[in-house]
Amino acid sequence: MTDPLTRYPRPPFPAQPQSFPGQTPRMEPQPDHGEESYRGAGKLTGKAALVTGGDSGIGRAVAIAYAREGADVAIAYLPEEQADAEAVGGWIERAGRRALLLPGDIKDPAWAREIVERTVQAFGRLDVLVNNAAFQQPNQGLDGIDDALFEQHFRTNVFGPFYATKAALAHLKPGASVIFTSSVNSKHPIPTLLAYSATKGALSNMVLSLAQLLAEKGIRVNGVLPGPIWTPFIPAGMSQEAVKTFGSQVPFDRPGQPAELASAYVMLASDESSYTSGALLTVAGAMPVL
């Protein structure tokens, strides 16, 4: 039995400035994506999945877990994240599954359609779409939020998932699953993450609407609301003072690791969750989210 309070590192953490989107190898301590810890049980055998933002953080953990559960996995990511993406591809292949690497920008609707088509061409099907790619940059005041920056948040975090989900609809069969990475910020918005919090609120509402809209097709739609998770987003998208104490705001007094999110995404994608749609699943170290 493992004590969740002491399983992983706790703050304070060292300052470690990075530019967005951040690189996993430069993080201290190194995040756990389940590379050595996740054990599959065949819950997704024969399925094909597309995970956006699958090169690092939560997306990386999901891709590794899906492969070990028996799925072929395509990951979409920004071109500058090629090294991280190749590492994930290696873990997928070591699990005995096929990996497809798709560099590009989810803000481009044509590319969002292309990654869906290329996944179907490579694997012959698409059963699970995980809309996980996101952008985050903190602000101090309203005047400090550049118009283009505000728009970039929505184009990445809301428009991109819309484009990809719309494109995937032609290939998703009854029993398929669409999962969105939202955030606890959708219900507890942070003033210094005004744009990011607004996009996550939009995503949570999109989950609830799409679950109803696609119910007649037998397609399930759910969302995961992570709390503070130790990903490259943190040193690349927060102040260094915030990085030092990151995770101390929740009752577990530490950030979650990407590997600790993987089981939620596996559960929502598996056939055992056939009656689960329209759920917003919080994974946040005992943080109350209502």
Gap between N and C termini: 29 Å
Q: Would you state the CATH class? A: Alpha Beta
Number of strands: 7
What is the number of independent domains? Answer: 1
Give the CA-based shape. globular
Strand content: 5-15%
Mean pLDDT over all positions:
96
Rg computed from alpha carbons, rounded to a whole number of angstroms:
18 Å
Low-pLDDT sequence parts: none
Counting DSSP H or I runs of 4 or more residues, the number of helices is 8
Helix content: 25-40%
Which secondary-structure class do the elements indicate?
Answer: alpha/beta
Largest sheet: 7 strands, parallel
SSE order and pairing:
Blueprint (H helix, E strand, L loop, with lengths): L47 E5 L4 H12 L3 E6 L4 H13 L4 E5 L5 H15 L4 E4 L15 H22 L8 E5 L12 H20 L6 E7 L6 H5 L2 H5 L14 H11 L10 E4 L7
Parallel strand pairs: 1-2, 1-4, 2-3, 4-5, 5-6, 6-7
Helix pairs in contact: 1-2, 1-8, 3-4, 4-5
